[in-house]
Amino acid sequence: MTHSAEDQSPAPAPAPTQGEGASRGDEPASVGDTLVEKNWGLSFYLFIEPFAVGKVVVDLAGAGGPGPELLRRAGAMDVLSPPTSALPLPFPGAGVDLVVCGLNAAAVDDDVKRAALFAEVKRVLRRDGMVVVRVVARVLEKVAVGVSLRAALADLALEHFATVDIVEETPFRAVSYFVPGSDDLAVSEAMSKVGGRPSHLIALCTPATDRTWHLSESLLVPTGPGEGGELAEGELDAWRAEVGRLTAKVAETARERDELREREMVVQDRAERTGRTVSTLRKDVERYLRQISDEAAARELLALERDQLRRKLSAVQDELVVAQREMETNKSSVQALRKEVARLRAARGSAAGTGRGPG
Q: Kind of pairing, strands 78-80 and 56-59?
């Protein structure tokens, strides 16, 4: 949600223009077929300023008021305002970057008037141009049947534009602080709870299919001390208590941050030690694996040698069996020869005893 604080100081009433919202009082002022808001407020133009830088702007809301001059000082290339509220707009087609306008009760209730206004706005707008439409919240309550005010305004705008964002304008008194050592504005999200209901709703529209703007999540528009200028009784004490609470919260957060940093350092040290242990274990495992691999290779080699020796032993045993058989055969042959020699010797001796020699 984007918040802006409504300017409480009186400002010059702008001249009647086409398509503006209800007056600052509850009763709108009638001018022809239009209803105009007497004072758009400084905060609305402060909200528009970032979108107007370097752009050609048509302001249908600030004729006679300080708004156009604020936009010029903010960096707008040119700010144009029609001299009257009559349509069509006295501007050439497709020559404007930004159009600022409003929807009054008549335009919200009457589809024809609303269509005529937006048709003229789209005619003068570039294809990638932007329209900022502001509507008083209570005007939308009549058409927001069963839906939120945001959804009701979005439905009205989407009838004429391809891309629409809705912003709630919720006035509230607030104090802001810059974060020490930076340019960032510290904003308590709890502040949004004290704003109450939105006073206006703003539609950011473009005929293009992509957004041509950027919105922050939260926006505080400073508008000075506001009505009265003095804090109510007890309000200053309440803000001091809030500041004290936030200061204590910051100190507590800082302590938690320091504790987390210390824990992070302890965890990092443990992680480094664990990493070293894991690295050592990994090296040991790799060494053991190499040893196991070497031992397995050695065992495989021994198994091969054993098989070779077994085969050799088997061959030797076979050869031994053959040799033993040959030796038995040789023994038998020797014994037969011995017997034959003995027989021959006996025969020889017998022949010598009879005196007969051989032959």
A: parallel
In sequence order, the β-bridge partners of residue 136 are 200
For 257-288, the pLDDT digits (tens) are: 999 999 999 999 999 999 999 999 999 889 88
Nearby residues of 49 by Cβ (< 8 Å), 6 or more positions away: 70, 71, 74, 75
Q: How many CB atoms lie within 10 A of CB 133?
A: 29
Angle 113-118-123 (CA atoms, 0-180°, nearest 5)?
130
* pLDDT reading at 9 higher than 70: no
Mean pLDDT of 349-358: 67
Can you give the residue ranges of every domain in the chain?
29-230
Sequence-ordered strand ranges (E) for the chain:
29-31, 34-36, 56-59, 78-80, 96-102, 125-136, 163-169, 177-178, 185-186, 200-206
> What CA–CA distance (Å, rounded) separates 60 from 100?
6
Cα–Cα distance measured from residue 209 to residue 230, given in angstroms and rounded to the nearest whole number: 47
Cα–Cα distance, 125 to 92 (Å, whole number): 9
Q: Using CA atoms, how far apart are residues 12 and 39, in angstroms rounded to an integer?
A: 7
> Model pTM?
0.51
At the topology level of CATH, where does 29-230 sit?
Answer: Rossmann fold (3.40.50)
Q: Which of 144, 147, 162, 60 is nearest to 108 (CA)?
A: 144
Phi, psi angle pair for 23, to nearest 5°: -75, 170
